[in-house]
Design goal:
The chain has about 190 residues and is mainly α. It has nine helices and no strands.
Length: about 190
C-alpha cells in the first residue's frame, strides 16, 4: 500500500456526522401529526412511532459505532471513503422506508425493503471493517473494536430470521427483529 494514498479521517467523520444529523432531522419532520389531539389520535399512529423509534435507534447506533471505530483508525484510503459513501447512501434511505412501513405496516414489500436496508448496512460494515483492519494492521485495539461476530454477523443472522418469519405471513416481524437487533447492539456497545 502506498503511503501517499492514505489520508486522515477528520473530514470523513465530519461528513458522516452531518449526514446522520440530516437523516435524524428528516425522520422527525416526516413523523405524522395525529388527526386529533387525543390519546386515540396518538394511538392511531403507533406503527409510525414504532418505525420512527427503530429508525432513530439505527441512526444513533450507526453514529456511535462509526465514532467508536474511527477513534482508533489512523489511516484511510479512497476505498474506505467510497465504502462510507455507499453506507451513507443506504442509510439515507431510512427516512423514506420508515414512512413506507409506517403507512403500510402489513405489507411484505415495505417491511422487506426496510429490513433489506439494514442488511445492506451490515454487509457494507462487514466489508469496511475487514478492510480497515487490513490497512490499519498495526492497531491491535481496532481489531477488538471491530468485533465482527457481535457487531455484524449476529445482527445479520437476526435480520435473516426476521425475513423468514416475515415471508411466512407476519411481515411486521421484520421491523420487530430490526428493533431487537438494534437494542442488542446498543446494549452490547455499553458493556
Amino acid at each position: 500500500m502506498k503511503m501517499e494514498n492514505l489520508m486522515e479521517t477528520n473530514r470523513l467523520e465530519a461528513f458522516y456526522d452531518a449526514i446522520i444529523a440530516i437523516i435524524v432531522t428528516v425522520l422527525v419532520l416526516e413523523l405524522p401529526q395525529p388527526e386529533t389531539a387525543t390519546i386515540a389520535g396518538i394511538l392511531a399512529l403507533k406503527v409510525s412511532y414504532f418505525t420512527y423509534l427503530v429508525s432513530f435507534l439505527v441512526c444513533a447506533n450507526l453514529w456511535q459505532y462509526h465514532h467508536l471505530i474511527y477513534a482508533h483508525v489512523k489511516k484511510i484510503d479512497s476505498k474506505i471513503i467510497w465504502l462510507n459513501i455507499l453506507l451513507m447512501f443506504v442509510i439515507s434511505l431510512i427516512p423514506y422506508l420508515t414512512i413506507f412501513v409506517g403507512n403500510n405496516p402489513n405489507s411484505l414489500l415495505s417491511e422487506s425493503l426496510y429490513g433489506l436496508d439494514f442488511i445492506l448496512v451490515d454487509i457494507i460494515l462487514f466489508i469496511m471493517s475487514r478492510y480497515l483492519i487490513k490497512i490499519n494492521e498495526d492497531s491491535e485495539y481496532l481489531s477488538e473494536v471491530l468485533d465482527l461476530k457481535n457487531a455484524i454477523i449476529i445482527p445479520f443472522i437476526f435480520l435473516i430470521i426476521g425475513f423468514i418469519i416475515g415471508f411466512l405471513g407476519y411481515p411486521i416481524a421484520i421491523s420487530i427483529v430490526c428493533l431487537i437487533t438494534i437494542v442488542r447492539s446498543i446494549l452490547y456497545s455499553i458493556k
